[in-house]
Amino acid sequence: MSPISDKAPPWVEVVMVGPIQAAEAWADYIYSMSGQGVIIEEVADHPEITRVKGYLGFTAELAAQRAGLEEFFAALKQQWPDQVMELGFSDLEPVDWSENWKRYFKPRRVTWHLIVTPPWEPVEPGPNQQVLIIDPGQAFGTGQHESTLLCLRRLERLRRHGRLGSSMLDVGCGTGILALAAVLMGVGRATAIDIDPLAVAATEHNAALNGLSDQVRALKQPVEQLSEEFSLVTANLTAKDLCHLAPALAPRLAPGGELVASGLLVEQVDQVRQAFEAQGLALLERDTMSGWAMLVLG
């Protein structure tokens, strides 16, 4: 992509202020659009309000990206009509904002026994703790978002009960965090797929960082092209994608296995559940966090 003008500022900062549920949906949306880091901040004296900062490159796609963000913001305002919500755009001085966000990615204990950390923040694990190194690159998945946390905590519950199984498929793998965590917890082998080559490269890189390259296979491949069955399937996607892929995801689950679907809002649970029930799967469990939901099906 080439810049619009040699004199144009290289980055545009997009700031959205709103209730936490809307802010999280917004953070996912702008991240998927820009591929750049997103900063989520609390608003002083207003614990119910969150500020999200994202960054757009000053490219030929900027006008279309801005229009898309404004349209999505308008849709969010309709969902929360009584809440304070604001959206602003501003040009920035030349700074490497694609790297600046890294100071906000710190080591975090995402389950009782698992710590996720970036490679630039070494951490010493405590007793019975494991460390998973994640370098996000331009892919989604650092273990910070609720939809990912719900999946990671489900993996730990499966490990605690000895039900992780021997094989795992992660659809829409992003950084590979779920596949890598599953192998670290005891799954014998994992296949991580994504249609984004940047995600596949990030997964391969993170597998190497953690010494798990022999157990994690990353593929740029749609789930429809797979024929193998897996004892565990994870799909941290959007509600729309989950519903669309349900006919392809359900056959990938081996008898007695679990399909963990995340990335949907609480109000979208019924439509996603119905999509999988139409494929012969039953809802085994659901969990929620800050307006986000995870479904366990089998």
Describe this entry's structure for a reader:
With 298 residues, the protein is an alpha/beta fold. The chain has two domains: 11-101, Alpha-Beta Plaits; 105-297, Vaccinia Virus protein VP39 (Rossmann fold, 3-Layer(aba) Sandwich). Helix content is 32%, strand content 31%. The chain is built from eight helices and 14 strands. It has a seven-stranded mixed β-sheet, with helices on both faces. The protein has a four-stranded antiparallel β-sheet with strand order 2-3-1-4, with helices on one face. The chain has a three-stranded mixed β-sheet with strand order 5-6-7, with helices on one face. The radius of gyration is 19 Å and the shape is globular. The chain starts with 10 loop residues before the first strand and ends with a strand.
Give the SSE layout.
Blueprint: E1 11-19, H1 20-34, E2 39-43, E3 46-57, H2 62-79, E4 86-91, H3 97-100, E5 108-109, E6 114-117, E7 130-133, H4 146-160, E8 167-171, H5 177-185, E9 189-194, H6 197-209, E10 216-220, E11 230-236, H7 239-249, E12 253-265, H8 269-277, E13 283-289, E14 292-297
Parallel strand pairs: 6-7, 8-9, 8-11, 9-10, 11-12
Antiparallel strand pairs: 1-3, 1-4, 2-3, 5-6, 12-14, 13-14
